[in-house]
Amino acid sequence: MADPKRTDHEIVDAVRGGDEAAFGEIIERYRGPITNFLYRFLNDYEEAVDLAQESFVRVYFALDRYHKEYAFSTYLYRIASNLAISELRRRKRRRLVSLTGLFGGEDEQDVEFQPPDTRVLPEDETIDKEREQVIAKAIASLPDKYRLPIVLRDVQGHSYEEVASILELGLGTTKSRISRGRGLLKGKLETYFVSDGN
Amino acid sequence: MGIEFESKDEQRVSQVLASLSHVEPPGDFDVRVRSRIAAGKPLSPRSWFWPVFAGAAPLLLLGAVGVYFITQPESTVPSGIASAPSIEQEKPSFDPANYEPEVATGNTTDTSNAEKMIVKPPDVDNKMVVPTDQPRGPNIGGGSYEDTVDVKKTITPRGINVNPRMMPKPRDFDTPTVIPIKDVLTQIGVDSQGTSTGMKVVSVTVNGAANRLGLKANDVIESIDDKPVNEKTSYKGKFAGKKMRVIREGKPIEIDLSKP
Predict the structure, then answer these.
(1) Which of A133, A135, A146, B199 is the most exposed place for a label (fewest CB within 10 A)?
(2) For B207, left (φ over 0), alpha (ψ -120 to 50), or beta?
């Protein structure tokens, strides 16, 4: 059972001291948020679970190099973010489907087409599935540099300072990218503004 | 602290995103993490380079050797065959290593000339006859003994196909891509949904082509180039539509797709 009173740093000290079972508390604490973050970023549940597991494994083997000057969650999210970015780049290299050759001369950055994830979500009985899919697609259409801070801030609920620390950006840059990302999403999510008001 | 939102719309976007449900990992998540840790090192499925390189290196080497032989000009005879007996290069039953020129003694008509004269090896004359009744030399591969006599023939290592016309054309190049209309609309910045009368515009990207063309949310695309469209409409190869008929608030509108 996890001890809710132990801080992350205390658990890390215990693991470093040889108590490997203590790492289970870390997993229990962050498996949900990390999986959700990766799912909202990649819009692919299986990939999100795989990368979430990989994040914990990498954190475990890198515990000796972890410095307590910043929060453990920041460290964990940073690893997860880097894995997610690498996955996106890998997808682009594989070129799942590219339709950008059809139209030329668009000013906006080309949007990579990704096959929709039609798998059933774990708890979809009470969820408005279509609405969630539209929002997920909208997030997936954002360029990487806006998508990451948007998901960390507006979906995961991190503060601006935490987001800046995770992404190793300045606070001003972080706020600017979040604002820009929201601007890009506005056109896609307007329908839900109206429907929310009804 | 600063202002959180620059506009009310930003705040609404943030609220919509915050309303997304949270997914949970599967029940065996912890077990899988522990098994990966127990394996001893981070199991990165993305660390594919070295295993692939180790497997591909011999194939690449074989491919490079094959390309070298294919690109050789026709007159070149592979080095392994060069030592085979040929008309120009070697004469049968003449061993240069053991040949000692014979000094002419009484074989010439001019006996006053004291210079040593070199005579030809006794078995050699201007005509070359290949003895067929004698045993052949060791087989060095790459062609028969008779092939080496005819130097105009191209001799290539076995297994190399030098006829490019025999290489089959990849089948996929002949098959045009089929693109559903939903994907075509996504490319111009339209998020769409099929309805009984056409394709409904759910949303339009701010800086996308559709916005510049004048499409708006809730428009219903009825036809493209006078052909009715629905969710099952698709296009082979390249999409080259010129005009779109759209129903907006019950009224038809023509949209010119060729606008820059």
Answers:
(1) A133
(2) alpha
Question: Nearest CA of chain A to the CA of B168: how many Å?
Answer: 25
**Shortest Cα distance from A68 to chain B (angstroms)?**
22
CA torsion A182-A183-A189-A190 (nearest 10°) is 130
Of A27, A36, A108, the CB nearest to B33: A27
User: Per-residue pLDDT tens for B121-132?
Assistant: 555 444 444 455
Whole-number pLDDT of residue A108: 44
Tokens of B260: 């820059």
Which of B7, B10, B13, B259 is most worth mutating to test chain A (most A CB atoms within 10 A of its CB)?
B13
Shortest distance between the Cα of B186 and any Cα of chain A, in A, equals 8
pLDDT of residue A148: 95
Which residues in chain B have their CB less than 8 angstroms from residue A102's CB? 179, 184, 187, 238-239
* Phi, psi (degrees; rounded to nearest 5) at A126: -100, 5
Q: Are B69 and B160 in contact (CB under 8 A)?
A: yes
Contact assignment for B179 to A52 by CB distance below 8 Å: no
Per-residue pLDDT band at A120 (split at 50, 70, 90): low
Q: What is the C-alpha separation between A83 and A50, in angstroms, rounded?
A: 10
Residue with tokens 């899919």: A133
Please write the tens of the pLDDT for every residue from A64-98. 888 888 889 999 999 999 999 998 888 877 655 54
Q: How many CB pairs under 8 A join A and B?
A: 158
Q: Is the pLDDT of residue B68 over 60?
A: yes
With tokens 């601006």, the residue in question is A160
Given a cut of 60, whether residue A102 has pLDDT beyond it is no
B234 Cβ contact partners less than 8 Å away, ≥ 6 residues apart:
B178, B179, B180, B181
The structure tokens 């990207």 sit at B205
The answer to whether residues B151 and B161 touch, using CB atoms and an 8 Å cutoff, is no
d(CA A146, CA B241): 32
Q: In whole numbers, what is the pLDDT of chain A averaged over residues?
A: 82
CA distance B232 to B229: 8
> What band does A163 get if pLDDT is binned at 50, 70 and 90?
very high
Q: Which chain A residues are within 8 Å of B22, Cβ to Cβ?
A: 32, 36
Q: What does the pLDDT look like over A39-65, one tens digit per residue?
A: 999 999 999 999 999 999 999 998 888
Q: Is B83 on the interface with A (CB under 8 A)?
A: no
